Amino acid sequence: MWFMYLLSWLSLFIQVAFITLAVAAGLYYLAELIEEYTVATSRIIKYMIWFSTAVLIGLYVFERFPTSMIGVGLFTNLVYFGLLQTFPFIMLTSPNFILSCGLVVVNHYLAFQFFAEEYYPFSEVLAYFTFCLWIIPFAFFVSLSAGENVLPSTMQPGGLGLGRSTGHGDSCTDFYKDPPSVTTIWKTPGLEDSQRR
């Protein structure tokens, strides 16, 4: 009897380890796809936000969910659209990011409060949490590393930060058409002002 009990705990440990490994591999693969296809990812996240908005409106119209819960959810989606404007570059200190994190907590509080008072089957509660609370923050969370591996020519209008872009092509080809001089590259900001004094 005790031998089978030990085997059951050992098998549970191995299964949890395999599930953890599978989830980690899946997240890694998703992050790689997002880094490779940032434009498509931005479009997919935009469609997910629109879908979540439609679900929230449907819940208000057909299921009579509370106005406060639906209103906060719609405002959260509006904030997500603000985050999408700078995608894949998400600044962790930006007001949009901080506000979206706070709204995720508020949405969860309102949802727990509502589902504690009103009975819904577990599958319906899980559907609400999946489509209205979890899927969009999860997409943004997985794509946080996407901005780190984007080429410099797509990050800023000046390309290499030398201020020599002509504006006719991308900054990388402009750099090779009209390369900067050595003095331009090694120019220290503020050095000219101190030499003039």
UniProtKB/TrEMBL annotation:
<dbReference type="InterPro" id="IPR007277">
    <property type="entry name" value="Svp26/Tex261"/>
</dbReference>
<keyword id="KW-0472">Membrane</keyword>
<dbReference type="GO" id="GO:0097020">
    <property type="term" value="F:COPII receptor activity"/>
</dbReference>
<feature type="transmembrane region" description="Helical">
    <location>
        <begin position="128"/>
        <end position="147"/>
    </location>
</feature>
<feature type="transmembrane region" description="Helical">
    <location>
        <begin position="68"/>
        <end position="90"/>
    </location>
</feature>
<dbReference type="GO" id="GO:0006888">
    <property type="term" value="P:endoplasmic reticulum to Golgi vesicle-mediated transport"/>
</dbReference>
<dbReference type="GO" id="GO:0016020">
    <property type="term" value="C:membrane"/>
</dbReference>
<feature type="transmembrane region" description="Helical">
    <location>
        <begin position="6"/>
        <end position="31"/>
    </location>
</feature>
<keyword id="KW-0812">Transmembrane</keyword>
<dbReference type="GO" id="GO:0005737">
    <property type="term" value="C:cytoplasm"/>
</dbReference>
<keyword id="KW-1133">Transmembrane helix</keyword>
<protein>
    <recommendedName>
        <fullName>Protein TEX261</fullName>
    </recommendedName>
</protein>
<feature type="transmembrane region" description="Helical">
    <location>
        <begin position="43"/>
        <end position="62"/>
    </location>
</feature>
<comment type="similarity">
    <text>Belongs to the SVP26 family.</text>
</comment>
<dbReference type="Pfam" id="PF04148">
    <property type="entry name" value="Erv26"/>
</dbReference>
